[in-house]
Specification:
Elements: E1 12-16, E2 24-26, E3 36-40, E4 43-44, E5 51-55, E6 61-65, E7 80-85, H1 103-125, H2 145-148, E8 151-155, E9 162-167, H3 168-176, H4 178-189, H5 196-202, H6 204-212, H7 214-222, H8 224-232, H9 234-237, H10 241-271, E10 272-276, E11 294-297, E12 302-306, E13 311-313, E14 369-373, E15 380-384, H11 441-447, E16 480-490, E17 499-510, E18 521-528, E19 536-538, E20 542-543, E21 559-568, E22 571-574, E23 578-581
Parallel strand pairs: 10-11, 16-17, 17-18, 17-19, 20-22
Antiparallel strand pairs: 1-7, 2-6, 3-4, 3-7, 5-6, 8-9, 11-12, 12-13, 14-15, 18-21, 21-22, 21-23
């Protein structure tokens, strides 16, 4: 490959589509046509079908656009043609020990590495990064996907690190009412009026009063024609000043009475708040509650009074406080309805029968039952007596000693300091626990891998032991390979056979075996077929006296015997052939 430089240039160029189909030049070096990616506006184009690449002698080049597939028409000046370095980041060449290490190979690898670095640098230059003057502890990691979904990116006011900002829906909502906010600002700062919002806030009580007599205002608004008539007749009654004064005084008195009545009604409505489905936190005017305020709770169907800090059910006059009674007694059964007996400050609940009295859990449609819940009250363990049909009356005494568990019939537990008689045991003890996992001797041997006949051999007084002298009382014989057709390369299997009877049907070569064992001995019988003249050649593992090889009978159907012994791996010593047995 021709040597060339990889210059310090940006591996990205964006050009106007004014050149039509091109060519569009790029000044960064590439090693192949696939080292670049081309975009028409935001569309990634495909090499060959959408564009072609021409590489110059200095390995810069140009791109020519092809219309048809992803490019529907010739690019215009309003289009952007983006050419960016996109060499696949991979290494396809390995230098091996004692292999060729050429300058061209090294240059190609180093050029690829430089191109990779430039591609990464070009992308980093377009990334969101911290200022060079930022502290070294700055963490520019984005919030997690779930935390940044639908959010604007913001930066922490203390650390400057990225964090999830306001939601896009909130910002869009705020943007939709900007004109209303501007209008309110104009009303307050004097653009439209001067401090109008502050003024209205200052007379909110009057506004509330007017809202309370809105029906009267509506009535007055409906009498505008009558008011107009009065105005037109003012000149006729100007002489009746005394009457007007008296009427004014009466009107003032009436207004005062109305105001007093309204104040009285407001005071009453601020004390008795009426019927409500839940406990209110303010009075009907939105003011703070006062001790003595009342309301009817439609959910609990009771009247409640405000104590100054909380709402409390108004008790019947005949019911005295239990707390003030030092020896309260029930006049009948205590029905808990849907409530519990509870304590505060981690106090205990104690049941204290007198003398020999007992705490009895009575049965009803079911035996007496006690349930112990978990701390979350989502699980429970039930203790109950035997049913009536069992006719059982007995005493269950808990065991003495330290903390412990009651033994269950079905629970998996470990017993300590317990004596269990063998007659009390039933079933099988698992092998892992020291047993056999079986109910019979035969099954136990099988479970332990000691089945007679398959895993172990049954006792036999005639079994031969290999480390003692043995006297055989019956004839013994080694396994013999009887092969009636042998020609070409023949490998004897000394693992399976001790003796070999081979009928020669062609020239034979005894190939080197791999199954011989030191000390093994036996014989090899060679039988000429009906043709005769068959020869036997030896592999290098077979040795003869003086290295003379084997000379066998050649006559048809003759039989020769050759004894052997294995002296070592790869050394099979052959004795002198005994020829032409007849």
């Amino acid at each position: 490959m021709t040597d060339y430089n990889i210059n310090a240039v940006k591996r990205r160029t964006v050009q106007s589509g004014s050149a039509g189909l091109g060519p569009y030049n790029f000044t960064f070096e590439i090693l192949s046509q696939t080292d670049i990616a081309v975009h028409l506006n935001s569309t990634l184009l495909t090499l060959t079908s959408d564009y072609t690449v021409s590489i110059n002698s200095n390995v810069t080049g140009s791109v020519t656009i092809v219309t048809g597939t992803n490019v529907s028409s010739t690019p215009q000046a309003s289009d952007d043609i983006t050419i960016i370095g996109a060499r696949d980041i991979e290494r396809t060449t390995d230098f091996v020990t004692a292999g060729d290490l050429t300058a061209s190979s090294l240059n190609e690898q180093l050029d690829s590495l430089t191109i990779f670095d430039q591609q990464i640098s070009e992308r980093v230059d377009r990334a969101l990064i911290g200022s060079i003057s930022d502290p070294t502890t700055l963490d520019m990691t984005l919030p997690t996907v779930d935390n940044r979904k639908g959010k604007y990116l913001a930066f922490n006011s203390t650390s400057g690190a990225p964090e999830a900002g306001p939601s896009t829906s909130d910002v869009n909502t705020l943007a939709s009412v900007t004109s209303d906010i501007a209008t309110l600002a104009d009303i307050q700062d004097g653009t439209t009026a001067t401090n109008a919002i502050t003024t209205v806030a200052g007379i909110h009580a009057n506004v509330t009063t007017v809202a309370g007599i809105s029906s009267n205002v509506t009535t007055v608004a409906g009498n505008t024609s009558n008011i107009s008539t009065v105005v037109s007749n003012i000149s006729a009654i100007q002489g009746a000043a005394t009457n007007a004064t008296n009427a004014a005084n009466s009107a003032t008195a009436a207004a005062a009475s109305a105001a007093a009545a309204a104040a009285s009604e407001d005071s009453f409505s601020d004390t008795y708040l009426g019927a409500k489905s839940s406990e209110p936190s303010t009075d009907n005017d939105g003011d703070a509650l006062n001790a003595g305020d009342l309301f009817f709770d439609t959910t609990a169907n009771t009247i409640k009074v405000y104590t100054g800090s909380a709402w409390q059910v108004v008790s019947q006059a005949s019911l005295t406080s239990i707390a003030s009674d030092t020896s309260p007694q029930l006049g009948g059964d205590l029905d808990m309805v849907t409530f519990d007996i509870v304590t505060t400050s981690n106090r205990d609940i104690e049941l204290n029968p007198n003398g020999t009295g007992k705490t009895v859990l009575k049965g009803n449609t079911n035996p007496g039952t006690l349930v112990f819940n978990c701390e979350s009250n989502t699980h429970g363990q039930t203790v109950k007596s035997q049913p009536h049909s069992a006719s059982v009356t007995n005493t269950l005494t808990l065991p003495a000693g330290g903390d412990q568990e009651i033994v269950g019939a079905s629970a998996t537990q470990t017993l300590t300091n317990k004596t269990i008689g063998v007659g009390q045991l039933s079933g099988q003890v698992a092998i892992a626990n020291g047993g056999t996992g079986a109910a019979s001797a035969s099954a136990a041997r099988t479970a332990l891998g000691l089945a007679i006949g398959s895993d172990v051999q049954a006792h036999d007084a005639d079994t031969v032991k290999k480390d003692v002298n043995n006297t055989f009382t019956a004839a013994q014989r080694g396994s013999t390979d009887t092969d009636t057709s042998n020609t070409g390369s023949v490998t004897l299997n000394f693992d399976t056979n001790q003796n070999f009877v081979l009928t020669l049907t062609g020239a034979v070569t005894l190939a080197n075996p791999s199954t011989e064992s030191v000390g093994q001995s036996g014989f090899i019988v060679f039988i000429q077929d009906g043709t005769g003249g068959r020869t036997v050649s030896l592999g290098t593992d077979y040795e003869t006296a003086g290295g003379a090889g084997l000379t066998l009978s050649t006559a048809a159907s003759t039989t020769d015997i050759v004894p052997y012994i294995v002296a070592a791996s790869g050394r099979i010593l052959l004795g002198a052939p005994q020829l032409a047995f007849a």
